[in-house]
């Protein structure tokens, strides 16, 4: 579970996130929506400890990300909004580096690398340098690294970006399976169709403030029964 309590973040006098309260429960796929500049990535970077929190607290499975950062970071996996990391490493070198960070035993590491990279169709490219990969291949490599140590909490910032249909389907199935085991899956996306198909609950943020939190049925009940998610989203975000 991720608990965000009265969190505020400012940049040069401009409030990016304002007094945000949000609980992401276990056992559900939780979608995080909002227009560009709404505060989604800023919120995710505070959850993961990349950005400091100006006011408020964030805990991941009970660990405060500010006071207990190492304990918190050991139990979550984070897919950033850009896969352009460690470009001078080969794919296999990057994955082994991640395995070293989390002290994964060699046999478990090799089994997980084989499974994940074959699932995402990048196994044959592991001896190539990441800088030669396409955007989609880099995304698959990052996702494989994130899932390598089997974290309880998944924090995914636009994880489907650049994925081919087969890999997108594979990741969505993995997300469903992970949540079904009672774990946390928290992801941001701009693809509204994915939200309707995949999410158990959703939160919508705009101008740094929470506009809605609930399931799809509850969101549509606030509007006309025949309205689709796109219309609901536009109304909640003031048509931005």
TrEMBL record:
PROSITE patterns: ABC_TRANSPORTER_2
Keyword 4Fe-4S carried by entry: no
Alphabetized InterPro entries for the sequence: AAA+_ATPase, ABC_transporter-like_ATP-bd, ABC_Transporter_VariousFunc, P-loop_NTPase
GO MF terms held by the record: ATP binding; ATP hydrolysis activity
Keyword vocabulary terms for this entry: ATP-binding, Nucleotide-binding, Transport
Gene3D superfamilies: P-loop containing nucleotide triphosphate hydrolases
ATP-binding is among the record's keywords: yes
Species in which this protein is naturally found: Thalassobacillus cyri
Domain ABC transporter per the UniProt entry, residue ranges: 2-232
Organism lineage string: Bacteria, Bacillati, Bacillota, Bacilli, Bacillales
SMART domains xref list: AAA
Protein name: ABC-2 type transport system ATP-binding protein
């Amino acid at each position: 579970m991720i608990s965000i309590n009265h969190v505020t973040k400012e940049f040069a006098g401009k409030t990016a996130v304002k007094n945000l309260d949000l609980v992401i429960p276990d056992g559900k796929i939780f979608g995080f929506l909002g227009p560009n500049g709404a505060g989604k990535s800023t919120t995710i970077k505070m959850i993961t400890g990349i950005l400091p929190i100006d006011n408020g607290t964030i805990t991941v499975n009970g660990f405060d990300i500010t006071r207990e950062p190492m304990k918190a970071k050991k139990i979550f996996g984070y897919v950033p909004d850009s896969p352009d990391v460690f470009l001078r490493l080969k794919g296999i070198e990057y994955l082994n580096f991640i395995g070293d960070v989390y002290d994964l035993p060699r046999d478990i590491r090799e089994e997980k690398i084989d499974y994940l990279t074959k699932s995402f169709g990048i196994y044959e490219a592991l001896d190539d340098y990441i800088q030669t990969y396409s955007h989609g291949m880099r995304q698959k490599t990052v996702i494989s690294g994130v899932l390598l140590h089997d974290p309880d909490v998944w924090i995914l910032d636009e994880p489907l970006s650049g994925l081919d249909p087969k890999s997108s389907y594979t990741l969505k199935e993995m997300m469903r399976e992970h949540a079904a085991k009672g774990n946390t899956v928290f992801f941001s996306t701009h693809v509204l169709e994915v939200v309707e198909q995949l999410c158990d609950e959703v939160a919508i943020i705009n101008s740094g403030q929470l506009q809605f939190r609930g399931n799809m049925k509850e969101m549509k009940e606030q509007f006309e029964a025949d309205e689709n998610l796109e219309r609901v989203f536009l109304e909640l975000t003031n048509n931005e």
